[in-house]
Amino acid sequence: MVIMSAAGEVRSRRVLARVGRSWALLALLLMLLVFSLAGKEFLSLANYSNILLASVTLFLLAAGETFVVVSGGIDLSIGFVMGLVCVTSAIVMRDLNAAGASQLICVSAGATVGLVLSLIPGAINGLLITRFRVPPFIATLGMWGIANGLAWLFSGGLPIAFLPSAVHKIGRAYVGYYSTKAGFSFAPPQLTTREDILSVVKIIPVPVLIVAICLVVLGFVLARTRFGRHTYAIGGKMDAAVRAGIDVRRHLLKVYVLSSFCAGCAGVILVFLSNAGSLTQFTSNYELLSIASVVIGGASLTGGRGSIWGTVTGVLLIGTLNNGLMMMGLQIFYRFIAIGIILIGAVLIDRSFPELLYED
Fold first, then answer.
1. Residues 131, 267: contact at Cβ < 8 Å?
2. Could you tell me if 88 and 117 are in contact, meaning their C-beta atoms sit under 8 angstroms apart?
3. In whole angstroms, what is the distance from residue 89 CA to residue 160 CA?
4. Is the domain defined by 24-354 classed in CATH 1.10.3470?
């Protein structure tokens, strides 16, 4: 009887561990079910595509933040680094376009300048934290203000318009199109009637495909490479990582550069999505939503735990919640309240059942 009781207890703990580790995914599935029953318009391929398009920049920001959080740090600058890169890339594209350069040169030069620029804030953050021992919160908060100020300086507080026409085409492009009349094609089918045009099924937005490839690469790096293992080791216990021979300073510098680079990628994609170089104060919320996505996805703010795929689940949960509540007609402050409640619940689960959530 004692043996059977012990075996039952082990099985119960394993079930609780699986449920605890998968609570965000279960909550996402439940949310999809509830919103699908609440409104017919939610349950459609077009709406799911809208959710993904609205979340593409957050996917990249949160993926970069995952590396930082797993290493035991935090990066508050990524929202305005994204805004700075968005503005700078758009200015380069606009000026080259005005000078008569080809579409290819305008777009590639603007994207390249933005991505190179994004490395600088990450390098400064990493040096402040590793060489001068500035707490990550303070170092990245300072960069938050610097990036914000530079973006306002470059843009004059106004959106950067008059970009090459290719920018809009790339941002609104899909991998493929299908209609019952024209069949499948990689380019938008040439249809005349309104009914035929509305019946076209758009298959996977190009920005979503690009971000998905980036997430696969980042997920592999964190889970399957030495770089990822060192990141977990530093976040788990830095002293032990040092004794194991890991160059902690150099590695953390790379982590913050990677986080900033992901923000730069998000900024470039934002140019294509909005067809403008835009900077609004809402970008200050992006780093908070990124951290929320990472924590909801199962990462611990003390470091040593987390995954890209958990973060993806966290982003999808926030994106689905925003979309579903919006389609129900609720105002935006209710959405922020709901996200706050979910975030607090994630932390409570992490603190209350750590031995269940993370035991092998």
1. no
2. yes
3. 10
4. yes
Amino acid in the structure at residue 247 = D
Task: Quote the CA–CA distance of 296 and 305 in Å, as a whole number.
Answer: 12
Could you give the CA distance from residue 23 to residue 349 in angstroms, rounded to a whole number? Answer: 9
Q: What angle do CA 249, 254, 258 make, to 5 degrees?
A: 150
d(CA 292, CA 296): 6
SS (H, E, C) 53-90: HHHHHHHHHHHHHHHHHHCCCCCCCHHHHHHHHHHHHH
Average pLDDT over residues 240-262: 97
Convert the pLDDT of each residue in 156-183 to its tens digit: 888 999 999 999 999 999 998 888 777 8
**Domain coordinates of the chain in residue numbers?**
24-354
| pLDDT, tens digit, 9 for 90 and up, residues 261-316 | 999 999 999 999 999 998 765 556 888 899 999 999 989 888 999 999 999 999 99
Give the pair of three-digit tokens for residue 213: 């490839």
Angle at 188 between CA 186 and CA 191, to 5 degrees: 135
| Distance separating alpha carbons of residues 220 and 129, to the nearest angstrom | 26
Say what the pLDDT of residue 219 is: 97
How many Å apart are CA 20 and CA 135, to the nearest integer?
A: 31
